[in-house]
Amino acid sequence: MHRPQRWYLPTAAATERVGAALAGALTGGLVVTLAGDLGAGKTTLVRGLLRACGWTGAVKSPTYSLVEYYPFSSLYLYHFDFYRFADPSEWETAGLADCFRDDSVCLVEWPERVATWLPTPDLAIELAHVDAQPGRHLTVRAASPKGERCATEIDRLSLPAGP
User: Fold this and answer.
1) Per-residue pLDDT, 47
2) How many Cβ atoms sit within 10 Å of the Cβ of residue 98?
3) Is the Cβ–Cβ distance between 9 and 141 less than 8 Å?
4) What was the pLDDT predicted at 73?
5) φ and ψ at 17, to 5 degrees?
6) Is pLDDT of 62 > 60?
7) What are φ and ψ of residue 93, in 5° steps?
8) Among 85-89, 123-127, 134-138, 140-144, whose mean pLDDT is lowest?
9) What distance in Å separates the CA atoms of residue 152 and residue 147, rounded to the nearest whole number?
10) E-assigned strands of the chain?
11) Which residues pair with 69 in a beta bridge?
C-alpha cells in the first residue's frame, strides 16, 4: 500500500514526537510492529504515544513481563516485547493471541521473534542507529488503511530525511 518512508530522528524527543503523532490515528484492531536493535528507541516511541493519550504513569519496556497493558476508556492498549523468545512457537504457549482483537491496539517490539504467528501489522516501524552520529533512522511501511492513517500522521511532522 504505502511506499516505505524514511526520516532522521536526531533526539529521543523527536522519537517521542513520532509516537505522539500516532496517538491521533489509534483505532481498534490496529497492530504496529517496532523493529530495531537494543537501544534503538522502540520504547521511547511508545512512551511518546502513551503520553499523548494522557498516560501519566511509568512506561517501561515489557522485556521481562512480555506485555504491559494500558487501559483507556475506549481502547485496550497492549505493549509487547518478544526479545526473550528463543523460538517463535513460544507465542502459542504465552496465550497472547487473545489480546489481538477489534477493541485493542497492539504495539509489538521484536516482531521477528514471533515470525508468522503474529497477525499482519497495519504499520511496520523500524528504528536504526545512525553510524557515527547521534539519532536514529525511522522507516515506516503501511500495509492497510489503518496503517496509512498512521503513516500520514507521521508524515505531517515534516521530519528531516537525515544524513
Assistant:
1) 94
2) 7
3) no
4) 67
5) -60, -40
6) yes
7) -75, -20
8) 85-89
9) 9
10) 5-9, 31-35, 67-71, 76-81, 104-109, 123-129, 136-142
11) 78
- CA atoms in the 13 A half-sphere facing the CB of 107: 28
For the stretch 118-134, pLDDT in tens is: 899 999 999 999 887 78
Residue 128, phi-psi category: left (phi > 0), alpha (psi -120 to 50), beta (remainder): beta
Give the percent of the chain with pLDDT over 90: 55
Residue ranges with strand state E in 36-154: 67-71, 76-81, 104-109, 123-129, 136-142
- The predicted structure's pLDDT at residue 122: 96
What pLDDT digit, counting tens, does each position of 17-43 carry? 999 999 989 999 999 999 999 889 999
Q: What is the distance between the alpha carbons of residues 139 and 128, in angstroms, rounded to a whole number?
A: 8
Give bridge partners of residue 106 from the DSSP assignment. Answer: 31, 78
Q: Indicate the burial class of 134 (C-beta count within 10 angstroms; 0-12, 13-18, 19 or more).
A: exposed
Tell me the pairing of strands 136-142 and 5-9.
antiparallel
Q: How distant, in Å, are the alpha carbons of 6, 98, 106, 145 from that of 25? A: 19, 22, 13, 11
Q: At 147, is the secondary structure helix, strand, or coil?
A: helix
Compute how many other C-beta atoms are within 10 angstroms of the C-beta atom of residue 102.
8
What is the C-alpha separation between 25 and 22, in angstroms, rounded? Answer: 5
